Amino acid sequence: MTDAVTLRPARDGDRDGVAMLWRCSAGLPGVISAPLPPLQETRARVDHDLAGGWVLSVAESGDRLVGMLALRPDLGVLDQIFVAPDWLGRGVGRLMMDAAKAAMPNGFTLHTGLENRRAQRFYAASGLALLGDRPDPRTGEPVRFYAWRSV
């Protein structure tokens, strides 16, 4: 990574940027097969999920958000992890994954789309175990589940 990146708790003023980053990252080829909702719906989901228990962190470089990490420690779930498209492969994902492991030392689960091969390679390289394919809890679409347990 050539530019300094820090991870910090999200602030209310980050919500628009988080929604934009989430939507841009989810829109990359192979990440999500379903049509993306409008930006306003993604922004509303950020508010909804924060009210529902998300612990949201953002990775930033300078004044730019380059990653988002949404955890549900109460459920042992890494709910969302996204890196800005032009920051992929620069260590941002690793920084956020390490933070998730530190925040949930007893382990966690996550899921990703069946077609999201880049994420699947990243999760395997991060020491997560493949649990198998099941329906997405929100949409019912098939997704691939992973788990991390500390050793």
Structural description of this entry:
The chain is an alpha+beta fold and 151 residues long. The chain has a single domain (6-148), classed as Gcn5-related N-acetyltransferase (GNAT) (Aminopeptidase), CATH 3.40.630. It has 4 helices and 7 strands. The chain has helices at 15-26, 39-51, 92-103, 117-125, and strands spanning 6-9, 55-61, 64-72, 77-83, 108-113, 129-135, 142-148. A 4-stranded antiparallel beta sheet has the order 1-2-3-4, with helices on both faces. The protein has a 3-stranded antiparallel beta sheet with strand order 5-7-6, with helices on one face. β3 and β4 form a beta hairpin. The protein is globular and about 35 Å long. The two termini are 28 Å apart.
Examine the coordinates and then state which fold CATH places here, giving the name of the CATH topology: Aminopeptidase
- State the CATH superfamily name: Gcn5-related N-acetyltransferase (GNAT)
Strand tally: 7
What fraction of residues sit in β-strands? Answer: 25-35%
H-E order = EHHEEEHEHEE
Helices and strands: which structural class? alpha+beta
Largest sheet descriptor:
4 strands, antiparallel
The overall pLDDT, averaged over residues, is 93
- What's the domain count? 1
| Strand order in space, largest sheet | 1-2-3-4
Uncertain runs are: none
Gross morphology is globular
* Reported CATH architecture: 3-Layer(aba) Sandwich
Distance between the termini: 28 Å
| Helix residue percentage | 25-40%
Q: For the CA atoms, what is the radius of gyration? A: 14 Å
Number of helical segments?
4
Question: In CATH, what is the class?
Answer: Alpha Beta
